[in-house]
Structures are given as C-alpha cells and as structure tokens.
Design a protein that fits this description.
Layout lengths: L3 E6 L3 H14 L2 E7 L2 H11 L3 E5 L7 H11 L4 E6 L4 H10 L3 E4 L4 H13 L8
Parallel strand pairs: 1-2, 1-3, 3-4, 4-5
Helix pairs in contact: 1-5, 2-3, 3-4
Length: 130
C-alpha cells in the first residue's frame, strides 16, 4: 500500500514533532513537510504536494481562509484539515466556505487526529468533523 503524504503546519513545534513521530510509526504515512507560519506552509505544501495538509488556523501570516483558497487553486485534490482552537461555528463556516475539507480541535489527542486523518483521506467528497 502506498504511503499517504501528510504536511503539518502549526506554530507549536512539540505538536508537529509528536504528530510526525506517531504518523510515521504507523507505517502508511509519510510526513513530507512541516511549517511554523502561513507563508512557509503554503510554499511547502505547494512544493511537496501532499495528499492531506493539517493547518493550524492561527498560524502567523496570511489568513487561514486566504491560504485555503490559494491551496485549492494549486492542488485541488488535496485534503485540507484545519486545526481550530474554538468550536466557533462562524469560523468553521469560513474554513468550509473557503474550501477546507474539515477541522479538528487543537485539544484533540494525536491518536484521535490520526483517526480523523484516515477518515478525511477515505472520504470521496468534502465533509466536516467535530
């Protein structure tokens, strides 16, 4: 089975490293890049072309909505999952309207994030989480 390519964008290095380790230990995931700000995230995602990108909604730099729209233009088939701090319906609606496939709350444990990654990768059409 081909490894699923994942990009992790978040300003917390501990989150990025711990999720990367867990994903790669499973064996069917390959973390193809990481970023700590929005500009580096968009650049890294565009150059690595992952199957799924996990993007912290509060990254320093251009807004999450602008980044989603840009990534949809460049890599339309990639799954985009946003990390959200609050379950604010208006913010979630903005992510979804911009083209995100869903969201995961930041306080979700890594093993649950991995379940949700599998869910989003297995879905054929856009869906929402949480």
């Amino acid at each position: 089975m081909k490894s699923k390519r994942i990009f992790i964008a978040g300003d917390d290095p501990l989150f990025r490293v711990s999720l990367k380790i867990e994903l790669e230990q499973i064996g069917n995931f390959q973390v193809v890049g990481e970023a700590r700000n929005a500009t580096a995230a968009v650049s890294g995602i565009c150059s690595s072309v992952p199957d799924l990108s996990i993007i912290d909604s509060a990254l320093p730099g251009p807004s999450a909505e602008k980044n989603i729209v840009r990534l949809r233009q460049v890599i339309p088939g990639m799954k985009i999952v946003m990390l959200a701090t609050f379950g604010d319906d208006d913010i979630i609606k903005c992510f979804m309207a911009a083209g995100a496939d869903g969201y995961i709350m930041k306080n979700t444990e890594n093993h649950e994030i991995i379940k949700k990654i599998n869910y989003f990768l297995d879905k054929n059409k856009t869906s929402q989480s949480e």
